[in-house]
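Exercise 3.2. Students should predict the tertiary structure of the chain below and write it as structure tokens, then compare their answer with the key that follows.

Predict this chain's 3D structure.
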Amino acid sequence: MKSLDISQNNTSLLLYGLAIFISAFLVFSIQPLVSKMLLPFLGGSPSVWNASMLFFQFLLLGGYAYAHLLSKVKKTKIQFTIHIALLLLCVMILPIALPEGISQPDSEKVNPLFWQLGVMSAIIGAPFLILSATAPLMQHWFSKSTHPSAHDPYFLYGMSNIGSVLALILYPTLIEPLMTISGQSYTWSWGFASLGIIIFICTLLVKLNDNSILHASSEKEKRETTDVSPTFQRKLLWIFLAFCPSSLLLGTTYHITTDIAPVPLLWIAPLILYISTFIIVFSRKPIITYETALKGQIVVILLSFSMMFIKDNTFPSILNLIPTLLILFFFSLVCHYELARMRPHVKHLTIFYFMMSLGGVLGGVFNTFIALYLFNLPYEYGIILILSLLCRGASEKPIWKDKYTTDQKILFLLLSIILFALFTASYFDQVKDNVPLLIFVAAIATCILALNKKNILFFVSIYSVFVAGYYFYAAHKPINNGVAILKERNFFGPITVVKNENFTLLKHGTTLHGLQSNDPQYIKTPLFYYHPNTGIGNTFSYLDKIQNGKEQNVAVLGLGSGAMACYTAPKRHFTFYEIDPEMVQVARSSQFFSYLEKCEDNTKIIIGDGRLKIEKERDATFDSIHIDVFSSDNIPMHIITREAISIYLDKLKEDGILMFHISNNYLDLSPVLKVIGNHFGMTAIGFYNKIPPENEQDKNEPIAETSVVILTKSEKHRNALIEQGWVVIPDSKSRIWTDDYSNILSALKFF
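Answer key:
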């Protein structure tokens, strides 16, 4: 009989763990899938990801609320029955697909964020809500089983997070490269149905007791599981402890994808680190102890201080990610440790997870709604770092309850002022040698490590140095030897206009998207990527040659500063398509740029996603179509799929030219375009110009290293362009990209 009980216990643990693992895997594999479905309608904005995160956080909260309410039903078998019935109903509306007739939102009339949330609710809302309730419900039901660990089922939360991490790793490395979107949707649906079967098997094989927790392996464990109802203050603290890491996750993701290194899919790294902290803190034998986490938090802050004292261009931008990711990991680890140490008796398990989820949602709301429209710089990142420090020791004695003498407070304040002064001085070249500063930081590291883990010095120093120092520097530092005359953030990303002695510059994120000379002699000359000696300038030079006094219609997807408008010619008509209304205002305002004002006699601007808007034009309208669409340093993938090219070709005249500006630090899209060109019987040729040596540069006409690809069916165009310096792109074995399939990893330059 004893061996039978052991066998049943092992079976129950396997079944519950498997159900929790599969549910978490499904939760995190559906997020990138749905986001990818919607990208063509939202212009590839980085905010699409943050909005998706917020949506799934809200549904997760709803799922946890449903789990909490269902757990109040007295009979566990009835709970099982209700949940399985709802799972079956959700199976009936699968697979996931966009509604028929869906169209892009008019960004001038409808907030794209709310449009995105509405569409996601329609296609995945119900299945995801029921799915997200599975993990807390299975833990609750496990607590009613005869398993010896039933008194403390929180360790099963680790299985949930392992499933989440595995989904995040496998999606970009295996799922996306090997499967189409429709294939992913059908596979996910089968996984959802399989989960329902496993839960049903649990109801048949696992013996439950509705009255109480049956087992505790020792008297000590019985004492630790004393049923004390959580107070309102305790619940608020749970929310706060979950809020800080959630906001920090989104702040870190925004930071590294727009300010440090906008590498495609880089959001996966911070999310994996964030989730892994849950695995650690809820495991029975954590690989990083609580005390080590507290010390690690101090070390990474000091590391970040050191990185601040070193000039921006000392290390490659990828290496600058290391302290940023370490800060996210250790700050989240400390907060989640405090949360795990305050977990309640298993009777209150579902309300505990609900409060955790509520904190996560509030973090998303703060970053996605409040901070985006309240701050023109990402101040939320520094604010949350400070709030996260307040979490230290929250499970024992909160930092704000510590008592200090007046002398200590004065010492802490003076130290903070010194650090702040040194930090800002180093950036404004008042301190030429960084070595003494680094030695000073090392001395401070020794002092802080020797102090109490909750010392108020930690809070004051961080507040003075990181927040005040960093953001003071960010707000006032010279940008490209000039000052920012405009800083805006919206759904499509941050826009900065900088003016120096010679030029006005346009930046999206940290990527320079164009500039204009302040000298009236050069004010109509396109510069940088659009310089006459780049592939873009070379293309218009060729269009001038073949125009022969005829009407010439040119479409440009992406407006930027409007520099291309100054490649004007008699009877040449430009139509620009720009998804960001703010960008249009910047380009049209003579306060910032005057390309359009000086050259727009034959120019029309249409606001909306270029691919969707150009589809509404008459066929065979344009002599050339120019794709110049960026989101920071990323190119929206839906712009260069087989279906997108088909749309452009319909609008292009038979002997027309299709040009793609693909300059990028991380992606080489020429093989992708070569494969698509072959599919349509077009020749793919490229033009790659280098920056001339400094002694050969015209300081009045700066030029950027630029990569441009042209697709054309005309042999005449092909041969003439080759004579102008263009080269045929070699064949590629890449799989053709479609709306249903793309593989970003294959386009990364280091792959």
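Discussion points: Residues 1-7, 212-226, 260-264, 429-433 have pLDDT under 50 and may be disordered. The CA atoms of residues 404 and 456 lie 8 Å apart.
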